[in-house]
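Q: What structure does this chain adopt?
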Amino acid sequence: MTGTAPTKLSEQRAGEALEDWSMLRINRYPHQTFLRRVWQLRHNLTA
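A:
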């Protein structure tokens, strides 16, 4: 950490980020089916 406050993404920007991610031309394991659900569950994540 650099000592700066964490930045929150707006719902709109988060959706845009998911769209950007889905358009990346990289090889990855199939998981796109789950991306939106994972995002929905993000508030359940604990460190």
